Amino acid sequence: MKLEAILAELTEQTGNDAERLARDIAHYLFKTQGRTLAAPVEYLFEAVAWAVRDRVMPDWHATWQRLKRQPTRRLYYLSMEFLIGRSLAAIAFNLDLAEPLREALLVLGKEIEAIEEAERDAGLGNGGLGRLAACFLESAATLALPVMGYGLRYEYGMFRQAIRNGYQVEEPERWLRQPAFPWELERREYTRKIRFGGRTHHYIDPETGRFYVHWDHAEVVLAVPYDIPVPGYRNGVVNTLRLWSAQAPNEFNLDKFNEGDYFEAVDARIAAENLTLVLYPNDASVLGKELRLRQQYFLVAASLQDAVTQWLDHCGPEWHRFAELHCFQLNDTHPALAVAELMRILIDEHHFGWDEAWRLTTRVTAYTNHTLLPEALETWPGEMVRRILPRHWEIIVEIDRRFRFSIQLRWPDEPSRQERLAIVSSDRVRMAHLAVHGSFAVNGVSRLHTDLLVTTLFPDFAELSPGKFTAITNGVTPRRWLALCNPGLKTLLDEAVGSGWVTDLDRLTALLPLSQDAAFRERFAAVKRENKVKLAQQIAHEGGIKVDPAALFDVQVKRIHEYKRQLLNALHVIHLYDRIKHGETDGWTPRVVIFGGKAAPGYAFAKLIVKFLNNVAEVITKDPQTEGLLQVVFLPDYRVSAMEKIAPAADLSEQISTAGAEASGTGNMKLMMNGAITIGTYDGANIEILEAVGEAHFFRFGLLADEVQARRTDYDPIAIVQQDGALARVIGYLQREFFNPFEPGIFQPILDRLFSPNDPWLVLADFASYRAAQEAAAAHYRAPARWFESAVRNVAMSGRFSSDRTLIEYNQRIWHLAAIGEPARSAT
Fold first, then answer.
1. Angle at 347 between CA 343 and CA 351, to 5 degrees
2. I need a labelling partner for 369 at 20 to 30 A (CA). Which of 77, 253, 759, 777 fits?
3. What's the DSSP call for residue 343?
4. Where is the PTM N6-(pyridoxal phosphate)lysine found along the chain (predicted)?
């Protein structure tokens, strides 16, 4: 019997009906795990996941074989983060298995919700960057685009956030213990060797006269790949996310062990595995910075080796077609070393001349910039790069030398241009400059962000290569961020406009007339109310705080950072509290303010903001005068699965970064898509949300980006406080330590920052405008017909924020991929 026939028979036997799903779940539980239905829920989850994965495998295998049989242009997406969250519900939804799986578990006496809750969020990312990458992979598969993701298999996520006495406490997040991660397949046959340290030797072949470089490395680490399937929406296409795990070439030094030196015997293994041990190691120390650099090189070296080896295995040395069939997308600055690594592979291993290698490298590399913040535009000390990656240092220096010469030829009378554009400056490597110079396309992630890239961050590069820059606004997948996380709204939308919106979100514009329909608004409001009740129950369960679902749910959940201005929100909360204390509650809008987010372990001021938010929340929530009027909640350990519950329940979406600081945002899109109304600055994708829904359905405030730049030159926060009585009362609470009576002085750094004329985020400058916008939002909420007209309109106009649209634009402008199957289409 031929293999193809055996595989076909196995596929037929698997089946997608409830009966066969139940049989397979029982098989894995009893015969593979040796357990019964009384086993702990994590084992039940694992059995269910294996049964679902069985249904992925035929399409995954077929997709891989299709790509092997017929060379086609492929996109390799390099990212340090892939925040995929939980996979069971998402994969089952895309395979149309949700209902059969529910029925199968009922046959076994179990409920699907308990099984889904047992899955841990994959600790492969931290924020918007990683969530965007996950959305892109799902949309690529749904659009049948041949896209392969490359990332790192972190054993520990960033950390699990606990709150103790108001402080953030970082606990290890070993997400891989579930007891296992059932979605991955170890592909040890594709293991790659990654080199670090050592020195280089330069020589000329006496026979050919060619110049060669040999990298005599001091250390080798194995990159072992683990593949995760990424199924499209019911179209038979399953792309791959390949994650690299670091391992030592040898488990341990047997000689050292036999000599009794047990610790040194395993030193090499521990050092190697540290590379992928933790997502975002604290880089406050030199050792932390070195580990971060090693992680970044480990990712790009393993991924490029893998892509090149696949090419040589399938097509042989037909290098003239390599650029035609390959594109490497760098997701932010972290993978910028790919430019130097591909040059090394071409020159040192395949004996390309410099010019030929550079032409090929710059034809296949594209770069997405995600931030204007200087600290995120990484630079590495020359000493560190020379020591860890000596060959790459030489290549980067040569790239810089040739680039400087070309700048001199272009602008012979402007020597300052060389320094502004330089890749190596003051013995530091500017990774963003390397990425821009080494790429054929550079994109920002919103229209304003791209404008600022061209005018403020990379103006000289834009003048040198004006056609290189383009704007592609971010998006999120509507499958997870609406259909899956908000089933009540999905049902309502299906009845109103048909189910085709799941893969064509623009169809939701058909809701616009219904925003004027009182009966539809009431049904929409009932769905929102149900979602708020569910979130309230979770808040009560996790935090012991009972919140009122009838109140305005005012939500700011995102990474804790000064530019995101959680402090501005907190000052407004104190303003509301002050009004309550002064009896100014006529026409009051009850409000529940919900914060969530993690502060980076090495970011002391962000961690102080977490403490401040928790202290404010504790005082206000415990004050009997606030009952029924104002509650403040900090949800610990914000993650993807938490956002899946928060987004459907949110009423007001806080997007209040200083204008010009937020590249795009994706949380704003998720909340809008689920019917929250945005209160926000004219920044990032907020601008495009505002354009989509209109001024009447968006609460805009604050300085514009150009006004921010001008204001920084004469910013006087003391004068602002003196001229604003409401703000002065708010500041008074901080000055008399109202929220920290037993912890004197702990919030003085916050006061110092707020009063500093050098505060780059101008928190106090926007307070009055923010307060006015909040008053408008509160009044709007008190008129339910107007509020839900705005809420429905936000859902209706969310089509442009689908990651499907984003991927289509990437493909049209940068990637130029041909579909390898039929793009998904929903039933109408």
1. 150
2. 759
3. H
4. 670
The predicted-structure confidence for 555-572, as pLDDT tens digits, reads as follows 999 999 999 999 999 999
The answer to whether 598 touches 161, Cβ cutoff 8 Å, is yes
486 located within any domain:
no
C-alpha closest to that of 88 among 480, 537, 477, 476: 480
Tell me the pLDDT tens digit for each residue of 725-755: 999 999 999 999 999 999 999 999 999 999 9
Q: Could you tell me if 465 and 561 lie in one domain?
A: no
| Beta carbons of 159 and 172 less than 8 angstroms apart | yes
| Residue-wise DSSP of 288-315 | HHHHHHHHHHHHHHHHHHHHHHHHHHHH
User: Residue 669 belongs to what domain range?
Assistant: 539-794
**Residue 427: helix, strand or coil by DSSP?**
coil
Q: Could you give phi then psi for residue 655, rounded to 5 degrees?
A: -130, 80
Least confident of 155-159, 230-234, 762-766: 155-159
3-state secondary structure of 817: coil
Opening angle at CA 736, ends 735 and 739, nearest 5? 95
pLDDT band at 258 (very low <50, low <70, confident <90, very high): low
pLDDT at 373: 84
Per-residue pLDDT tens over the stretch 765-817: 999 999 999 999 999 999 999 999 999 999 999 999 999 999 999 999 999 99
Active site residues: 370, 558-559, 564, 666, 670
| pLDDT exceeds cutoff 80 at 264 | no
- The token pair at 401 is 């030398």
The beta-strand segments (E) located in 142-208 are 147-152, 160-164, 167-171, 185-186, 192-196, 199-204
For residue 200, is it within any domain? no
d(CA 147, CA 738): 54
Among 481, 468, 475, 465, smallest CA distance to 445 is for 475
Residues 442 and 358 in one domain: yes
Cα(223)–Cα(276) distance, rounded to whole angstroms? 10
**CA-wise closest residue to 508 among 144, 220, 802:** 802
pLDDT of residue 58: 95
Give the number of other CB atoms < 10 A from CB of residue 524: 25
Beta bridge partners of 147: 75
Instruction: Decide: 430 and 418 in contact? Cβ < 8 Å.
Output: no
Q: Is 243 within a domain?
A: no
- Whether residue 689 sits in one domain with residue 547: yes
pLDDT for res 316: 75
Q: Are residues 451 and 554 in the same domain?
A: no
Same domain, yes or no: 582 and 708: yes
Phi/psi of residue 282, nearest 5 degrees? -60, 115
Which H or E run includes 596? strand 591-596
Residue type, 752: D
Residue 680 lies in a domain: yes
User: In this structure, what token pair is assigned to residue 477?
Assistant: 């997948």
AA letter at 300? V
Query: Within this chain, do residues 464 and 328 fall inside the same structural domain, yes or no?
Result: yes
Nearest C-alpha neighbor of 181 from the set 341, 317, 50, 327 = 50
Number of domains forming the structure of the chain: 2
Half-sphere exposure of 448 (CA within 13 A, CB side): 23
β-pairing verdict for 552-557 and 591-596: parallel
The CA distance from 478 to 504, in Å, is 9
